[in-house]
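ok here's the first one, seq then struct tokens
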Amino acid sequence: MIRNAIALAAAAAFAGSFAISAARAAPYMIVGNDEKLLWDDEGKPVLSPPGKDSVLIVDLANPEEPKIVVNLPIKNSVVGPPVNLDIDPSGSIALVADSIDVAKEGEALKQSPDNKIYVIDLKANPPKLTATLTGGKQPSGLSISPNG
């Protein structure tokens, strides 16, 4: 009984400290819009020229009324796992991977691996792109460790 009470108290203290530190970071959500790859009614891929992709930074401070803080024209990709973007635990930066490039080859558009990772400064007002990194081919599955 006493062990359970001690464990419960420790868990409550841990959860309370997490809630306090999480509240300090801006409650943002990041949304990647890939306009290069769409699908027709039959499920076949339809390629479009690059240039219309964007990344939205959405403020969720009031979840009933989310607000788009900024719409950044950043190339990104839905190809790969649905984790090609991430926000660090402090809420200060976001990473966006672009796995696929689309280019004209002859008369057709063709996909090829891209290697870009974009860094967004979420502390800037408004948030802005601060760096473009070159990684390996087709970066996918971004994940920032819980300790940053």
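and now the second one, same deal
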Amino acid sequence: MAPFELAEPQSLSEAFRLLQDEGARPMSGGTSLMLMMKAGVLRPTRLVNLRRLSLGGIEVVNGVLRIGAMTSLRMLERSLEVRKGWPVIARTLRTLANVRVRNVATLGGALAHGDPHMDLPPLLSALGATATVSGPNGQRVVPVESLYAGYLETTLKRGELITEVQVPALGGRRAAYLKCTTRSADDWPAVGVAVVLDGEQPTIVVGAATDRPTRLASPEAIEALPIEGDLHGSAAYKKQLLRVYVKRAIHEARNAGR
């Protein structure tokens, strides 16, 4: 691993300043970042650890779930508010990596990493979640799905950080997330499918089979979808998995809560 400077800012303004250098990278949980650094894929000259910033916490305000970016995935999984109002999120987290990783990994880090194999981006996109992005030029609120530009690419500008995620009330909607893994249940998925039912037409967002979370206009749109093959399966194999898992996820969503 190449040498690097470690900085621990006490405020967001200090973090923005430290992140202006080209070789600087933010670190929240660091679970994926450290693996990339050890593999030599990423060689930052400065890591800006966000652990001292007050960016954690879970609360429900006017029916909206508000989650601080530094909230661990394990805390999100165990939250009574989440399990009661958004049970699909808690169910999804139970097979995300393993409990050791979920104890360390944070929501903001999971979203900012940009890996299309992540479980939460397609689910939060289907749920209509938004992210608050803060930076030296101010703050903006964007749909979660608009955070992604491609494989390991996000639309975050230099110095910008995800500071909070907002998930609208589930209300009468029903939701499900299913994934197919080629090895253990907590492995990276070959495909992931999030479905939210609200009226006649389902909201469908797929992950792992594409280079970013991708919304489908209808189940039939799978046939025209550009698929990315990788170590978890060829493009043809993943397309067939999607044909099956989209139907299963719709069925699962219809039966959610029963």
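notes on #2: Residues 132 and 141 are 4 Å apart (CA to CA). Residues 174-254 form a domain with the Enolase-like; domain 1 fold (CATH 3.30.390.50).
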